[in-house]
Design brief:
This protein has five helices and two strands, in the order H-H-E-E-H-H-H. With about 160 residues, it is an alpha+beta fold. The chain has a two-stranded antiparallel sheet.
Length: about 160
């Protein structure tokens, strides 16, 4: 049997023919894994559309005067996260949360389209300004002192870092 013909050298530097067969096989396997057929793509798109509709229903903010939405921030102290909570209210319902559970400090007051984002930003800043327990103080349930001193009430300037 005659020997196989010698491989032609590729005219392009770094072509696929220059790669080892193992690497070519791995590339082919990866291509098969990441190739999405029409049916799988339709499932992905349908799932994405359902999730979008769910979010739209949850965060739908009506601009009419009859419908009102109460927005509030819920802070998870254990995880350190902040989450939005939107609740659509009927005409008869009150936006006053103090009658419900006494957590009026977490409520974002009802306001105009431009004031609600400002109020939300204020609530986030308040949440971030609360001292978090660190080290041994966390085990004892104590809170640690803030790292930066608060602005000086007389001059409005920061007094420095501890």
């Amino acid at each position: 049997m005659p020997p196989p013909p010698p491989r032609r050298s590729s005219s392009r530097k770094g072509s696929m023919a220059d790669m080892p067969t193992e690497l070519l096989d791995q590339l082919k396997t990866l291509e098969e894994l990441f190739t999405v057929d029409q049916a799988k793509l339709k499932k992905i798109v349908d799932h994405f559309i359902k999730e979008l509709e769910k979010v739209e229903r949850m965060l739908h903010l009506s601009r009419s005067h009859e419908d009102r939405v109460r927005l509030e921030l819920e802070a998870e102290q254990q995880k350190g996260g902040v989450h939005w909570k939107a609740q659509k209210l009927d005409k008869s319902e009150s936006t006053d949360r103090s009658a419900d559970d006494g957590n009026q400090d977490r409520e974002i007051e009802r306001g105009s389209e431009t004031s609600i984002p400002e109020q939300a930003a204020d609530k986030v800043r308040e949440h971030q300004a609360q001292p978090k327990p660190i080290g041994a103080a966390a085990q004892k349930g104590e809170s640690s002192p803030p790292l930066l001193k608060q602005p000086n009430q007389d001059t409005g300037q920061k007094t420095g870092v501890r």
